[in-house]
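The data are passed on as follows:
___
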Amino acid sequence: MRRDVFQAIADPNRRAILGMLAENQLNLNQVAQHFDITRSAVSQHMKILTECGLVVITQKGRERYCEAKLDRLSEVADWMNQYKKFWEGKFDLMEKALKTIQAKRKKQ
């Protein structure tokens, strides 16, 4: 089942896993050691992350190493940009209102 990147980042544990893997490539045991959940639960989170294309797992000898592929997060950034424009417009209006209030106070 192919999942989308928004499903992957909806869970705080998966976001934490991505944060860890963004800095270092780790094997599954190293990832699991950072969480107070079962190894099976970590594996399930990792499965979702790999299905979304955010993590690639490579077999090296007896270990399976996980590497973050964060370029897929650009979908999230693109989605957020539409709201960024909305908020920038609101902040511009607020700045204009504040300048008007300041100008009125200086005249008094």
